[in-house]
Design brief:
heterodimer; A: alpha/beta; about 25% strand; B: 4-stranded antiparallel β-sheet; about 20% strand
C-alpha cells in the first residue's frame, strides 16, 4: 500500500477578535508519514487543537485566516480545497477523533445507523454491504458481540466503548491520515491503554499516519514515534521520542518533563515545581 | 494511622446505595462495605476507575448522599445517624472541594463574599475580624488578596481552585475532602495545587481525603492509598508499599496500564475484559472476571479483607482500631491469593 505523506510548512492561523488579530499558530511545519505516530504535545491554549482543525479544514473562514507555505496530502493541495473538496476528503482520506465522543455521536441514532451512514457516503455500499462492513469493522476494534453493539444507542455504552466506536468510524474508510485530538483524556487509565493500543495497532496494520494530540507526556513516551512540543503556537522542539526524553534541548521541554508526576517515584519537594515558576 | 495518630475519621463497613427509577428494580449499590481510617494530618488518596464508588464514598461522609448502613465516626459520633445540629458542627471541621470550582463558587458573589459566608454561617469571629480571616485564607493558598474583589469568572482555572480551597479553609477544618480537585487543570496548575495541599498539611495540620483517578498525582501527594473497584476497596496500603509492591491483582493491572513518561519503561499493559457494571457486579470477588490470577473459589466466595503476611510492609505497626479491632496496619487486601 503506497500511502501519501501529509506535509505542512509554515502554517499560520490568525484569529480575528474584537480586540484585534492574534496569531495562535505561528509557522508550524512537519511531515506525517504512513504507519507512524506523531505526538503533538503542549499545554492548553498552546494551539494544538487549532492545528488539527486547520489540517481538517474545520476553521471558520470569517473568524480566522489560515495560511500555509505548504499543506499537502500526497498530490492534493489541501490549502486550495473548496468546501466541497473538503467534504469528499474528510472521513475518507483524513479522519479525526475527539476527546468527547458524545459530541460526535448522535444520541438519537444507533451505533449501526451512524456507522452505516459514514460507510455508505464514502464507499458507495448497499445497505446490507455497509451493515456487514460495520460489523466487520467493530470486530477489528476488538468487540466480540458486534451485532448487539450495532443496535445500541451511544448513551448505553461506556466512555471507552464510545471512543472505540469513534475510532471504528474514523478508520471505516481506511484513511491515509488519522488525527486524534486528546482521544483518551476523559478516560480511565485502563481504558486509555486499551484505546491507544488499538489505535496504534490499527495504524501500523493499515499504514495510517497518526497525529496524536495530547497534554500527557506519558502517552507521548509510550505510544508515539516522533513528537513536536508546541508552545504559544510555535514548535519549540521536534525530535524522535527517545531523544526527546533522553536529551531534551529546549528549556521549555525540560521544564515540561520536570513538572510531570510519575508513578515510579515520589517527587522530591523543592525540585522544579511548576512551569510558571520556571519560565 | 500510626504516623498520623490519633485517628480523625473512621469509616466502618459503609454501604451507599441509590434507589433506581421504577421502584421495583434492585438498588444500585455504589459502595459495598468499605472501611478506612484517616489520621490527623494524613493525606489519604482514594483511587479507582469511574463507577468504582469513590465519589459516593466521599459525598457520604458529610451525608451529602445518604448512608444505607455502616458508620462514619468522627469525634465519637456517627455522622450517619447524627442530628442536624451535630452534622452542622461536623461540617465546620470537615470541608469539601470539588472538581469544578465554578460549581462551588457562586458566580454572583465576589471571592471575598464567598469567603465571608462560611464565617457568618458558623458564627466564627466577630464581623469586624472576618475580613482579616478571609485575607489570611487567601494568603494560605497563595492568592493575592487584591483578587478578593473579583468574581469567579475573572480568575483562571487554577486560581479558582485555590479560591475554593481558601473558602474551605476559613472555618479551620481538620479534614478536607477533595473530589478530583485537579482533574480539570493543566499540568503546571495541577502541580501548584498538589504542592499547596502538602504545604497546608505541613503548616496547618489539615488532613485530606484526596479522590482522584490520576495515579501519578496520588503517588506524589498521598501517605496512604485506597484502591476501589466496583464499590469495594480491594487494597489499601501506604503509598510507597502500594506503588512499589501492589498486592491485589487489580491494583497491579491498574498500575501497569499507566503510560509512564519514559520511553525506556515497558509499554502499558491492557487488562482483559471490560470494566464490570456496578448494576450487575460479579458474584464472589468483584474482579474475578478480569483477574489473571483467578482461582475456582474466586467466582463464588467473596474474599475477606485480610492483612497479608509475608509482604514487605514499611511502617507497619500494631494499632488499635476505633472499634477495638487490633490489626497489623498499613496494608489490607481483599483477595483469595492472600487469604491463606
Amino acid at each position: 500500500m503506497n500511502r501519501p505523506t501529509l506535509s505542512v510548512r509554515d502554517l499560520v492561523v490568525v484569529v480575528h477578535g474584537r480586540e484585534g488579530s492574534r496569531r495562535i499558530v505561528d509557522g508550524v511545519g512537519f511531515d506525517l508519514a504512513p504507519a507512524k505516530v506523531l505526538g503533538l504535545v503542549g499545554e492548553s491554549g498552546s494551539g494544538k487543537s487549532t492545528i488539527a482543525k486547520a489540517l481538517m479544514g474545520l476553521l471558520q473562514a470569517g473568524l480566522c485566516t489560515v495560511q500555509a507555505g505548504r499543506m499537502t496530502l500526497g498530490q492534493t493541495n489541501l490549502a486550495a480545497l473548496t468546501e466541497k473538496g473538503w467534504q469528499k476528503l474528510r472521513g475518507r482520506e483524513m479522519s479525526m477523533i475527539f476527546q468527547e465522543p458524545l459530541t460526535c455521536l448522535d444520541p438519537v441514532f444507533t451505533v449501526g445507523q451512524q456507522l452505516v451512514a459514514v460507510l455508505r457516503r464514502h464507499r458507495h455500499l448497499s445497505r446490507r454491504e455497509a451493515r456487514d462492513a460495520a460489523a466487520h469493522l467493530l470486530g477489528t476494534i476488538g468487540f466480540a458481540d458486534a451485532l448487539d453493539l450495532l443496535a445500541s444507542y451511544p448513551h448505553q455504552l461506556s466512555g471507552g466503548m464510545r471512543q472505540r466506536i469513534m475510532l471504528a468510524m474514523a478508520m471505516g474508510c481506511d484513511p491515509a491520515v488519522l488525527i486524534a485530538d486528546e482521544p483518551t483524556s476523559a478516560l480511565d487509565v485502563t481504558t486509555q491503554a486499551q484505546v491507544l493500543m488499538q489505535l496504534t495497532a490499527l495504524g501500523r496494520e493499515r499504514q495510517t499516519a497518526i497525529l496524536l494530540i495530547t497534554h500527557d507526556l506519558g502517552v507521548v513516551a509510550q505510544y508515539c514515534d516522533h513528537a513536536l512540543v508546541i508552545r504559544e503556537g510555535k514548535i519549540v522542539e521536534a525530535a524522535p521520542v527517545r531523544k526527546l526524553f533522553e536529551a531534551p534541548t529546549h528549556p521549555y521541554t525540560r521544564s515540561l518533563l520536570a513538572a510531570v508526576p510519575t508513578i515510579r517515584a515520589r517527587r522530591h519537594r523543592g525540585s522544579p515545581r511548576t512551569l510558571a515558576d520556571q519560565l | 494511622m500510626s504516623r498520623f495518630s490519633p485517628t480523625l475519621l473512621s469509616i466502618r463497613k459503609l454501604v451507599v446505595q441509590y434507589a433506581r427509577a421504577g421502584g421495583r428494580k434492585a438498588p444500585l449499590i455504589a459502595v459495598r462495605g468499605v472501611s478506612l481510617d484517616i489520621g490527623t494530618g494524613e493525606i489519604f488518596g482514594l483511587v479507582g476507575e469511574s463507577g468504582s464508588g469513590k465519589t459516593s464514598l466521599a459525598l457520604s461522609i458529610l451525608q451529602l448522599v445518604p448512608v444505607f448502613s455502616g458508620a462514619v465516626l468522627y469525634r465519637d459520633q456517627d455522622l450517619a445517624t447524627a442530628e442536624a445540629q451535630a452534622l452542622r458542627t461536623a461540617r465546620k471541621s470537615i470541608q469539601m472541594i470539588f472538581q469544578d470550582p465554578l460549581a462551588a463558587l457562586s458566580p454572583r458573589r465576589t471571592i471575598q463574599q464567598s469567603l465571608l459566608e462560611p464565617l457568618a454561617h458558623f458564627g466564627i469571629g466577630k464581623p469586624a475580624e472576618r475580613l482579616e480571616q478571609a485575607i489570611a485564607a487567601l494568603e494560605h493558598v497563595g492568592l493575592d488578596p487584591a483578587l478578593q474583589g473579583r468574581y469567579p469568572h475573572e480568575l483562571s482555572g487554577g486560581q479558582r481552585q485555590r479560591a475554593a480551597l481558601a473558602r474551605a479553609l476559613v472555618s479551620e477544618p481538620e479534614l478536607i475532602i477533595a473530589d478530583e480537585p485537579i482533574a480539570s487543570l493543566d499540568v503546571s496548575a495541577q502541580a501548584r495545587i498538589v504542592d499547596l495541599m502538602l504545604d497546608l498539611r505541613e503548616r496547618l495540620g489539615v488532613a485530606f481525603l484526596f479522590v482522584s483517578h490520576d495515579l501519578a498525582v496520588v503517588r506524589q501527594v498521598a501517605d496512604t492509598v485506597g484502591v476501589m473497584y466496583l464499590g469495594t476497596q480491594v487494597e489499601s496500603a501506604s503509598a510507597d508499599d502500594l506503588f512499589e509492591q501492589p498486592a491485589h491483582p487489580y491494583t497491579r493491572s491498574l498500575l501497569s496500564a499507566v503510560a509512564v513518561p519514559d520511553p525506556g519503561q515497558p509499554a502499558p499493559l491492557v487488562t482483559a475484559g471490560e470494566p464490570g457494571s456496578v448494576l450487575t457486579p460479579p458474584a464472589g470477588c468483584v474482579f474475578h472476571t478480569r483477574c489473571p490470577d483467578r482461582m475456582p473459589s474466586c467466582a463464588s466466595i467473596e474474599p475477606a479483607e485480610t492483612w497479608p503476611q509475608g509482604l514487605a510492609v514499611a511502617n507497619s505497626q500494631t494499632a488499635q482500631y476505633a472499634h477495638g479491632e487490633a490489626a497489623t496496619l498499613q496494608r489490607k487486601v481483599k483477595c483469595h491469593l492472600w487469604n491463606t
